[in-house]
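Hi R.,

Here are the chain sequences for the assembly we discussed:
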Amino acid sequence: MELKQYSLFFLYQETYALTKRLFIQLKRRPSTLLAGILQPIIWLFLFGALFSKAPEGFLPGVDSYGNFLGAGLIVFTAFSGALNSGLPLMFDREFGFLNRLLVAPLTSRLSIVLSSFIYITILSFVQSIVIMIVSYILGYGWPNLYGLGIVFTTLILLVLFVTSISLCLAFVLPGHIELIALIFVINLPLLFASTALAPISFMPNWLGWLASLNPLTFAIEPIRTAYTQTMDLELVALHAPYGDLTCKSCISILFSLTVFSLIIIRPLLNRKLS
Amino acid sequence: MNYIKVKDLSKSYLDVKALKNLSVEIEAGILFGILGPNGAGKSTLIKILATLIEPDNGEVFINNINLIKNSRKIRELIGYVAQDIALDKILTGRELLDFQSDLYHINKNKKIERIKKLVDQLEMNDWIDRKCGTYSGGMKRRIDLAAGLLHLPQVLILDEPTVGLDIESRNIIWQLLKDLRNDGMTIILSSHYLDEIDKLADRLVIIDDGRVIAQGTPSQLKNKLGGDRITLKVKEFSNQKEAEKICHILSSIDGISQIIINEAQGFSINFVADKEKDLLAKLKVELAFSKFEIFSLTQSQPSLDDVYLQATGKTLLDAEISMAGKRDLKKESKQSMR
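And here is the predicted structure of the full complex:
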């Protein structure tokens, strides 16, 4: 029992140290944080302005395009941050710093992965809150307390899902150039093939199918519903070509994807960190 | 009793065999040197001992603990200082040591005490609170060494720790290693610097092409060569046929032994001359009789390089040069990435 307590404390100690290191890096090089906040805010202004003269009722269930866009940008910010989470690990691999961690008697080497999850989750929350505040100032609304719970639950699931894939890529790909290239290739197409910028009803059939299978959509729609003030998990959030999905269904699918990705990457992480 | 036992270790990287059934035994509390040219297999052996890579075959025991089966337990016993210094250049030296202490689960009070002691010992007070990215090579090496010593390991494993260092940093590290050995720590030091191993090591192993070619204390190995080492040249650049003729002449002289042709040094001839006999005059006569003149003749006390030369027919420097062209360091670096 005492041994177990020690192990838990040691796990906390090493996870804390690893997470602290990432935050020191962020504090001394805040450009990632700033870019992650500025980019969606610029999008919010520009896209909001672009569609500001759209006729009333142009988009179902929302007053303005900015109101519609907010949820997409929150998810996109969290998604981009999580997708980049493998980069610090890749640099540690390339520069040999990972060896410093691997020769240490860590209680569990999953602390290396756990610290990345904690770091990206906190970072995404900070960025999302800033975007939500700016959206509110621009008059695009604010979710109620229940809605906030949905927003952050959805973000945690999305961050876990994408971070696990990114960490996996950081071990599988040969170097940071390949990882950055892959991030470039999948980042924007995934955004455009989701309901972040337009509802499925605006899309051609094939794109509608893509968007309704895109994990980003399963995160965007519950958050968008959370902004409607009549938050109900049983509300239909997504009118997909294969049928309607409620908020609860979207979150359940996201949860299943997250669990599935964690199960899939576990053997790889065990092998690479053994 | 031997504290570290390495038995029949083999390791390959794709088509390159880095270690070939290598066996070594190391006693507790000594400074053990691993000497060999670049590409001999030193770093592979060191990385296996540091639990960074697994061997294809063979066993390693440290303090009777199986390294492959209980690698986490082994990590508590060892400190590792890698050949390539990997520091987080955003962190200060003190933050790095603090970070490292947490990875080794050192409690807060002990951590502060250990960091202070090591900062004093390695003379890092003036720059420990600067970011690692601003450090010189010597500073980086010292902070790296301090990180490896924070948890007071029983075994300290160092892979070429003084490569490219200034004399001041090298002397500080040498002194620290001597002090640690005197305090009872077992130290494994790999190097391709002969003087480093000669001055520091209590015992050593010489590795070439993944195999052990000699082991013992430095004086044992040198004494095995017998008398003084002589290098003879009859021309500035000779040839194989000529060198073989001279070897034949030398082998007929009583008191001359261990004759080697050093191809890389213009087919010079190396041999050991018995100290008790005055062989120089006889040598001149014999060579003159066969119409050879002495171009140069140097005499020296046997060194570890002579031990290597005796075993392989080439000097360490020549081995380094010949290996330099064959190695693809970029490829090796990619292969060693986890």
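Chain B touches chain A at residues 50-52, 72-73, 75-76, 78, 80, 82, 84, 86-88, 90-91, 95, 98-100, 102-105, 147, 334, 337-338 (CB under 8 Å). The two ends of chain B are 35 Å apart (CA to CA).

Let me know if anything looks off.

Best,
T.
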